[in-house]
Amino acid sequence: MPRARTRTAVLSAGLALAATLSACAGEQPQPHAALPMARPDPRPVAEAVLADTINKINALGTARATMTGSLGMVGQLNADGAVRYRGPQADLALDGKTRNARTEKLAVSIVDEVGYLNTPLARPDATKPWLKISHDGSDFGSKLLSPALAQLHESVDPRATFSGVEQATRIQGSAPDTVDGRPTTRYDLRILTEEAAKIAPDEQQRERFQRAVEDGERELGYQLWLDEQGLPAKFAATTNIAQAGEVSLTSTYRDWGTPVDIHLPPAAQVGVFDDLPPMAQPPR
């Protein structure tokens, strides 16, 4: 009798284990929860607007421009001048004033991507009022001032900002506006830095966008006002530059297609700062 009870208990346990294994085998594996899909960007791509504007700038080739804003360590800028667009380049001549600790006259020429600056705050010597500034120069003046001058250069040429990255630019918003009494449309534009770093055709562009990505700037913001002909009436940009601080400039355009003269300063009046310059003295 005890042996019979033992066999019964073993049989019952075996049946229970078999039932359990059978139930487990019948269960279907639960799929992993799907990762949330990246939400598509609802903002329209600015490619069509920018391509049309860039084509019109290239076709007319010249404009007169007023520039206002901050050149970082150079001070507040208020200047008037002209721009000539030649292929991918933009030549520039400006006359105006800067204000930091005091107000000083300022003249700038940029031809063939080489800058020339005339201000009492940065004169090589008494006979050479113009300071030559090259983006790849090894002299002190170029190293110190070329980033700010490059931003000044880009601020009069929307092509330098958007060419090649039109597909990576989104229209954050647009609205009717006026510029100097002229009807315009204001576009708030955002360049997606990660995408732009992949598609920008120019190496310096790619490096600039990649630095923005590494600094946590997912987007760079700009404002562009277009007149009824689709030409820039105003362009505003702000950039942080290590050597110069925050450079925030607004260019206002007029007289598209008007002939302009942009001259180089006389070579005898141009110098450089090979080393740290002496403290600039105010003019007497």
TrEMBL record:
PROSITE patterns (alphabetical): PROKAR_LIPOPROTEIN (PS51257)
Record bears the keyword Signal: yes
Gene3D superfamilies linked to this entry: 2.50.20.20
Highest taxon of source: Bacteria
Leader sequence segment: 1-25
Keywords per UniProt: Signal
Keyword match Signal: yes
The name this protein goes by in its record: Lipoprotein LprG
